[in-house]
Amino acid sequence: MELNYKKSSVVSADLPxxxxxxxxxxxxxxEKMIKKGARSxxxxxxxxAILGSGCRGKxxxxxxxEIVKLVEKDFEKLSVVKLKKIGGMGTAKACQVxxxxxFSRRFLFQEGILIRTDRDVFNLVAEVAGEKQEYFLTLTVxxxxxxxxxxxVFIGTLNQSLVHPREIxxxxxxxxxxxxxxxxxxxxGKNEPSKEDYxxxxxxxxxxxxxxxxxxxxxxxxxxxYYGFQQNGYFNKKK
Length: 239
Prior knowledge:
Blueprint: H1 29-36, H2 43-51, H3 60-74, H4 80-83, H5 91-111, H6 118-125, E1 135-141, E2 147-155, H7 165-175, E3 179-185, H8 195-211, E4 214-222, E5 225-228, H9 234-238
Helix pairs in contact: 2-3
């Protein structure tokens, strides 16, 4: 099973130079949402609705506009720390925004989202890219490449004794998965695979062939990006 990797694009939102006090009460974000539904709101209005009000001398639209720009620029590494660097953003409002983002992610996981590219995979696991410990995760997918479940299998130094096929494939069997995507992070910031990375992948690929559940890819991620085994020809060599 091969993923259809292709480039994706991000559409920027228009950020009008307007203040909430200049907008008629009936057309403000929350009132508009009640009347017309959440889908009628722009990205700017959605963030303004989450925030509820401005802070430290800044109008809510000013703060929302800066958040939208940050999201468009670096969504994969969005965090409370980065949000708090926006002038006027305190811990409470930064947590509000991150809670909304995480809630949306979890809902999408329940619905099952389509994984087309290695970038799609990275977007789903970007929260561990900068961790100081190694995280090993699996993404199980159905026959149409829809995400079934994302799991953290273990936290610690990667080796074959810890990444046991029993742990990997037991969950995949319960999910009735067609394939598994492996992911782990390198706290060092270097994305190149080590001998241990290859050994673990080789072992799981062999077991996958026996079990009838394909290992579709293995991504090594870090604060500096990622390395994809499939993209770099590993799985072609195994055929």
